[in-house]
Design goal:
metal ion binding, metal-binding, HARBI1_dom, two-stranded antiparallel ribbon, Transposase
Length: about 160
């Protein structure tokens, strides 16, 4: 693709809990970096291999991490038939895909809360500063979500 609109894309890896609350937000990478490469560079594979048993719901960009982490990373099902799929397979694939997306919707909403902050939705600054902005917004969002869990004190 050509044009200036494609040259400023950045990616960050976001980890949320089951309720969509922010747990981790990585520094940004260039948009051309594959999701699975970003996860490997951050050491996610080593962390999950030796860490506690936890299930991570990921999108299709992380397919292949499930085998490397002992099944801890769950991705949408891989489509085995590109064309002329049998009816039974098409129905099974749709059920599996829908089940995965139904569980992952909370994660997507957590990511959407991050994107709703004006500093990220309308970033007009330099590309070099976006990583600091993302980290600051993620910290503020995490603090806000944690503060919402603590009951207010009666004075």
């Amino acid at each position: 693709m050509s044009g200036k609109s494609k040259q400023n894309a950045v990616k960050t890896m976001v980890v949320t809990d089951g309720d969509g609350r922010m747990l981790f937000c990585s520094p940004t990478q260039h948009g051309s970096c594959a999701d699975i490469t970003h996860a490997r560079q951050l050491g996610l594979v080593r962390l999950l291999e030796g860490g506690p048993a936890a299930e991570i719901l990921a999108d299709a960009g992380y397919q292949g991490l499930g085998a490397q982490t002992g099944g801890r990373v769950v991705t949408p099902p891989h489509r085995k038939f590109k064309k002329n799929a049998p009816d039974w397979y098409a129905a099974m694939y749709e059920r599996q895909r829908k089940a995965h997306s139904s569980r992952r919707i909370r994660v997507e909403r957590g990511i959407a809360h991050l994107k709703n902050w004006r500093a990220l939705a309308r970033h007009l600054g330099r590309r070099e500063h976006i990583s600091d902005t993302v980290q600051a917004v993620a910290g503020l969002l995490s603090h806000q979500q944690t503060a919402d869990l603590i009951p207010a004190r009666q004075v």
